[in-house]
Structures are given as C-alpha cells and as structure tokens.
Amino acid sequence: MTTFDDRERAFESKFARDEEMAFRVTARRNRLVGQWAAALMKLTPEETDAYAKSVVQADFEEAGDEDVVRKLLGDLTAAGVDVDEAQVRQALTQETVEARRQLLKAE
Fold first, then answer.
1. Residue-wise over 65-80: b if at least 16 C-beta within 10 A, else e?
2. With contact defined as beta carbons under 8 Å apart, do 83 and 76 qualify?
3. How far, rounded to the nearest angstrom, does the alpha carbon of residue 76 sit from its chain's CA centroid?
4. Which of 34, 60, 65, 76 has the fewest CB atoms within 10 Å, measured from its CB?
5. What is the Cα–Cα distance from 28 to 103, expressed in whole angstroms?
6. Contact 21, 107 (CB under 8 A)
7. What gap in Å lies between CA 50 and CA 35, rounded to an integer?
8. Which InterPro entries does this entry report, sorted A to Z (predicted)?
9. Residue from 94, 55, 69, 30 nearest 77 by CA
10. Cβ neighbours of residue 95 under 8 Å, at least 6 residues apart?
11. Which residue segments constitute the domains of the chain, with CATH numbers given?
C-alpha cells in the first residue's frame, strides 16, 4: 500500500508544480504583453511599469484571457493605436512562448 501512497503523493506534487508554473507563465506573459502595449502607446518607463502591473491585475477579473484582451484592446484603441483583436491575441501567443522560455531559463 505504501507504493500506491507514494505514487499518489508524487502525482499530487507534480500537479501542484504544474499549476504553479502555469500561473507564473500567465502572469509573466501578461506583464510582457503589457510592456508591448505600453511601447505602442509610447508610455514613459514609469508609466510602462504601472501599465504592465495593471494588465496583470486585469487577468484576475474572470477566467481565461478575455479580460486581458478586452483591457488591451480598449486601452490601445483609446490611445489612438491602430490595432485589432487578432494582433492582440497574436501578441499574447508570442509573449506566452517568451514567458515560458524566461521561466525555464531561470530555473
């Protein structure tokens, strides 16, 4: 019975690590895409940092990426940047890859 208990603990531990990594990748991705959007809006370095943090916070409004897409698209449009939803989603995809790369490199 001990072998089964050990396997169960190992699976639970792996699941917890995977979930933590997924959360960290998403948070890093949101920061990176916030920096991308801030560059398009020509924000100062201080404004860029604050904006990137606000994008990370926006992700906590609802499950999925729709809240982040909505915020980015709204802010970019309000700033007069010619961007559409497809470009925002493409940036999310690209920054997801970069976020995962950065986190794996840091480990």
1. bebbbebbbebbeeee
2. yes
3. 17
4. 60
5. 8
6. no
7. 10
8. ATPase_inh_sub_z, ATPase_inh_sub_z_sf
9. 69
10. 29, 32, 33, 36
11. 2-106 (1.10.790.20)
